Amino acid sequence: MRDSKRPSLSNFLKDREKIFVLLVALFTVFIIYIPGTKLSTAQPQNRVHAKAVVLSADNSMVQQFGIVKTGEQILEVRFLDGPWKGDVAEAQNQLVGKMELDKFFRPQDRVLAVVDADGGNIIDVTLIDRYRLDIEAALLGLFVLLVVAFAGWTGVKAILSFVFTAVMLWKVLLPGYLEGCDPLVLSAAVTAALTGVIIFLVAGFNRKGLVAFLGATAGLCLTCALSILFGRLFAVHGAVKPFAETLLYSGYPHLDLGKIFLSGIFIASSGAVMDLAMDVSASMNEIYLHRPELDLARGIRSGFQVGRAVIGTMTTTLLLAYFGGYSTMRMVFIGQGTPLVNILNLNYVAAEILHTLVGSFGLVAVAPLTAVIGGFFYTRGQEESTVNPRVTAGGKKILKIKI
User: Fold this and answer.
1) CA triplet 202, 135, 101: central angle to 5 degrees?
2) At residue 252, does pLDDT exceed 90?
3) DSSP string, 42-107
4) Residue 120 DSSP label
């Protein structure tokens, strides 16, 4: 009777997984087209994006001071698509003297142009930057192809989780910030949703996924609490991040940049936390599959051993990720001979130290938390098929089967 039910149960679990994948895909599409957010506001009908190529550049009004350029370029461009495909128009490119913001165009450059028109007549052409959408699409396609070719159906679910995460951050988290939602509450809710969807998409609805989800959630809660606590102690304000002040002057003076900064700490570490929780949970799952007789204490110790092996590289991963984004700043300090004590007390350096250490602390904590949770779940729910002989007083062995 029991064996006859197992195929139907297996089919139900598989169908439930496919239903979950379908629901996540549909929800992702819904979020993309959800109305009412600032990012979904349609462009005015008289403004059109088009790909163009630079035919000539007049740099007579450009002045160079050292390594920076100021002034204005007068460019002649030909449109490669859109309503004015094949037409030639004039465009201006203003240079403000900041290399990280300025774009200097040359003939044959392919550019993204924004055309302001009135009744089909071109009024103004603004060049956004070099056209990179085609190469970005090719890189994304190569990434999807590699993941699916290597991981199969699991790769498809991984790509879906990747798209779902990007859409949630772009269409829910950032517009929520702009609408005035509490950044800490909104970030915690979005991170919890991402954690659940990503883990259950990849691991499925089983103990492995449940243990990884609970362990990752516990680690993220701890990281969130530490970011709030030490963020206040460090007295670091959110304006240390690029474009933070520009955001305030762009019509959003009500935003709490401090809370947005603190939210970014546990959002940035959430991926590594999920990764480590899944590593520990999957390893413990394999251990119990091959050694179902393990008790709670030995199971937790096994989880600890797995966590210790991964923690060393994971904490260094966060350090390298943050270091790579600010290497030029550190080179300036070294080149100017700035004392280390001065560097460590600067607010934007302290902000990165807070990012790295709090995120690493969450990583260190998630391994033992997942191991303890896994020990309880795998021990309590493991179906054992071990044969335990029990010898009676008459010398006969009675076989006891635990199911």
Assistant:
1) 105
2) no
3) PPPTTEEEEEEEEEEEEEEEEEEETTEEEEEEEEEEEESSSTTTT-EEEEEEEEES-TTT-----T
4) T
Residue 239: DSSP 8-state: G
Residue 186 lies in a domain: yes
Q: Would you say 365 and 219 are in contact if contact means Cβ atoms under 8 Å apart?
A: yes
Return phi, psi of residue 93, to 5°: -130, 110
Plot region of 291 (φ>0 → left; ψ -120 to 50 → alpha; else → beta): beta
Looking at residue 37, what DSSP letter applies?
Answer: S
Cα(398)–Cα(403) distance, integer angstroms = 16
What is d(CA 183, CA 227) in angstroms, rounded to the nearest whole number?
Answer: 13
Reference 178, options 257, 235, 112, 124; nearest CA is: 257
Buried b (16+ CB within 10 A) or exposed e, 284-298: bbebbeeeeebeeee
Cβ–Cβ under 8 Å, residues 209 and 197: no
Q: Which residues contact residue 316 at a Cβ distance below 8 angstroms, ignoring those fewer than 6 apart?
A: none
Judgement on whether residues 208 and 320 belong to the same structural domain of the protein: yes
User: What local confidence, expressed as pLDDT, does residue 10 receive?
Assistant: 55
Q: What is the pLDDT of residues 58-113, one digit of tens each?
A: 988 988 888 888 888 999 999 998 888 888 999 988 888 888 788 899 999 999 99
| Residue recorded with tokens 């800490």 | 184
Count of the separate structural domains present in the chain: 2
Q: What are phi and psi of 116, to 5 degrees?
A: -95, 125
Domain ranges, residue 94: 47-131
33 Cα distance to chain centroid: 21
Q: Evaluate if pTM is beyond 0.90.
A: no
Residue 124: its H or E element: strand 121-130
Q: Do residues 50 and 113 make contact, with C-beta atoms less than 8 angstroms apart?
A: yes
Residues 54, 141: Cα–Cα separation, whole Å: 28
Are 111 and 202 found together in one domain?
A: no
